[in-house]
Amino acid sequence: MTPILLLQLRSIITSPLISIFCKKFEENEIVLKKSIDASICTVLIGLENVMSNSILFDKIIDSVTFTEFYKTTEFENGKISSINYSFEQEGFIPLNLIFSNKKSRISEMISNEVGIKSETAGAILNFSVMLILSYFVNERQKSTIIQNDLNSQKKVILYNVPEGIRVLLGYSNFEYEATYTDSSTAIKTNSKPHFLNKIFKF
Question: Would you say 13 and 79 are in contact if contact means Cβ atoms under 8 Å apart?
Answer without folding.
Answer: yes
